[in-house]
Amino acid sequence: VMALVVLCFAEAGSRVASTGGPYAYVETALGPMIGFVAGCMVFSTGLSAAAGVSSLIARSILALFPGAPAALANVLIVLLVAGLVTLNLRGIRNGARVLEGITVAKLLPLLAFVCLGVWFIQPANLVITEVPNLATVLSTAGIVIFAFSGIEGAMIPSGEVKDSARTVPRAVILALGAATVLYLAVQFVALGIMGLDLAHDRTTPLATAAGAIFGPVGRTVIIVGAVVSMFGYLSANVLSEPRGLFALSRDGFLPKVFTQVHPRFHTPNVAIVVYGFLVGGIALSGTFEQLAVFANLAALTVYFLCAISVLVLRKRNVRTEGEPFLLPGGPLIPIAACVALIGLFYQTVQRDQFVAWLAVLVLVFVLYGIRAWRLRALRK
C-alpha cells in the first residue's frame, strides 16, 4: 500500500514543486478547502504520532527498571515533552543540533542487531504454520503503516529542490525502499530468534529478542537505541509541527496569539508551548496503539486525497518544471491506491477513533468557514 502511495507522491511532487508537500498537491488539484483539509490532517497525524511516541518512550524507559511503578510513565512523559518544548523555545538551531547527533546513533543498534542476530536464527521459527485471512492482514497493516508515515513530511521542501521532476520521485522511492529493507531484516531476525513468542512483548519485543542471545547487555542496548530513535523522531516533530499552528494563525484560521514570536529567540513561543500541552495531554490520555491508529487514519486521509490529486493533475497536465514523472499504467496505480486505502481504513478504524476523526473533520470545516466569513466581511 505504501508503495502505491509513494508512487502517487512521486508523480504529484514532480508536477507541483512547491513548499507545502501533500497539501500543496491537493490544493492545486482539488482547491483551497480540500487542500486545507489535507494540511490539517497532516498536522493531526503529527500531533497524535508525537503523543503516541511520547507514551512509548516512557514505557521503554520503565522497561529498563523492572519493578518501577507504572504511574512513573506519566511523570516521564511530562518531563520529556517539557524538555523538548524548552529546547525549541530557545531557537531552531538547538533542535537541529540534537537531530544531527541522533541521526547516526539511532541506526547503529538496529544494524548491529541484524548483522549479529542473523547467526542465531532458528529456521523452525520462520515456518508459516497458518495463513491469516485478509481482514486480519489489513487490520494489522493499519497499525504497521505507522512505521512508514512521515514520508509525506519529507515532501514539504520539494519546491526548494533542484530538478524536482527527477529528484523528488527518486528520493521518495529510494527512501521507502531502504526503510522497507531495514524493517524486513529486523523482523526476519527477531522472528527467527524468538518465533511466535515475539508477540508476547508489546513494549520492547526487539529488546527481548536481543536479550535472548546477548543477555541483559543486549537487551539494554536495544532499548536505549529504541529510545534514542524515538527521541529523534519526537525532537523533529516538536521542532516542526508548532510552525503549522503559527502558519494557520498567520493565515487567519486560528487566533492571532499563535503568531506571537519570542522577543529574544525569535521563535513562535505560544505555538510551541500550546503544542507541547496538546502532545502531553493526549499522551497522558491514550495508549500508543490507540494514538498510532488515529495517526494512521489521518495519514490515510491525506494519502487518499493525494492519490485523487494525481488523477486530476495528470488530466489538467499540471507541471512546474521539466518533464514530470509519469506512473506506469495510466490511472491504474492511483485507483489501486484509493481502493487499498479505503480497505485499510475500513479494517483499521474503530467506533471511538472514527468519531474522533469525524470531529477533527468538522473542526477543520468550521475553521475554514469562519475564515471565509471573515474575508467576505473585510471585503465589504
Radius of gyration: 22 Å
Mean pLDDT: 80
Number of strands: 0
State the separation between the terminal residues, measured CA to CA.
48 Å
Strand residue content: under 5%
**Helix-strand pattern:** HHHHHHHHHHHHHH
Low-confidence stretches: none
Specify the structural class.
mainly alpha
What does this structure look like?
- α2 crosses α12 (288-316) and α12 packs across α14.
- With 380 residues, this protein is an all-alpha fold.
- The chain is globular.
- It has 14 helices and no strands.
Task: Provide a concise account of the structure shown.
The chain has 380 residues and is mostly helical. 73% of the residues lie in helices and 0% in strands.
Summary tags:
380 residues, mainly alpha, 14 helices, 73% helix
Topology of helices and strands:
Blueprint: H1 2-15, H2 22-30, H3 32-63, H4 72-89, H5 92-105, H6 108-117, H7 134-144, H8 164-194, H9 205-240, H10 242-250, H11 269-285, H12 288-316, H13 332-348, H14 351-379
Helix pairs in contact: 1-8, 1-12, 1-13, 2-3, 2-12, 3-4, 3-9, 3-11, 3-12, 3-14, 4-5, 4-11, 5-9, 6-8, 6-9, 7-13, 8-9, 10-11, 12-13, 12-14
